[in-house]
Write a structure and sequence with these properties.
This protein is α+β, with helices and mostly antiparallel strands and 233 residues long. It has two domains: 142 residues, Multidrug-efflux Transporter 1 Regulator Bmrr, Chain A (Alpha-Beta Barrel); 79 residues, no CATH class. The protein is 21% helix and 34% strand.
Length: 233
């Protein structure tokens, strides 16, 4: 079993990246070839110059427009630019919280890093994930920062909220910033329960999600007291 990676949670400002794109998925046999071709075109086929990227401009590898059924995505290679030449796309990276991973070594090793990231449990938002390349030497060595967008987490049951309909509502009818649709409605909690009852309810609702119910229960008992609703309990 692949070991999960540790990460740092950071808050990032919004930014806009323009570049060339291709749609693929991790399961596609030509995935590596497609993404590698984007980098080839960016560095050697004039794309970087067309974007008016300076000599020390940060370049990005972006992954966005995920499809939930097959987790295919749009891969983009580019930089921050004031122009969008023909054949390029512009992607807005939203401000928010991201899981930050750092890789140092050969650029060719970034793919293996992503394999570990995909196997690391975290509340992913699946909006825009990206690699940030600030400096590489002539041999292709350097440090790459990888940022994975994190979803808001319900402060009652711990469910990641990735879609507008996942959010509960407050008394004024507006979406709750802290609670999901299963826990909050019209400014009140849907379930009048204790933390222990909430944990058992979560385990009962979708037992197929947990290979070991006792281990999952122990993890929840450690995690739930960090959620806003249960901090006083």
């Amino acid at each position: 079993m692949m070991k999960e990676m540790k990460y740092e949670v950071v808050s990032l400002p919004a930014r806009r990246v323009t570049g060339i794109a291709v749609r693929t998925s991790n399961e596609a046999p030509d995935c590596g070839q497609k993404i590698g071709s984007l980098w080839q075109r960016y560095w050697k086929d004039g794309v970087r110059e067309a974007l008016h990227a300076g000599e020390n401009a940060v370049c990005y590898g972006l992954y966005t427009q995920y499809h939930r059924d097959d987790l295919s995505y749009l891969a983009v290679v580019g930089c921050e630019s004031d122009t969008c030449p023909d054949g390029c796309v512009t992607v807005d990276i939203p401000a928010g919280q991201y899981a930050k991973f750092t890789y140092t070594g050969q650029m060719a090793g970034v793919g293996a890093m992503w394999q570990q990231i995909w196997n690391t449990r975290m509340p992913r938002a699946y909006t825009v994930d990206f690699e940030e390349y600030t400096a590489m030497d002539a041999q292709g060595n350097g440090t790459v920062h990888i940022y994975v967008a994190l979803a808001d987490v319900c402060q009652s049951c711990g469910m990641p909220m990735t879609r507008p309909e996942d959010y509960g509502t407050e008394r004024d009818g507006k979406p709750s910033k802290a609670y999901c649709c299963y826990c909050r409605k019209d400014g009140a909690f849907v379930q009048d329960c204790t933390m222990e009852e909430m944990i058992e309810g979560c385990l009962t609702y979708a037992p197929e999600m947990y290979g070991d119910l006792d281990a999952a229960r122990a993890q929840m008992q450690a995690y739930f007291p960090t959620l806003e609703r249960w901090k006083q309990h």
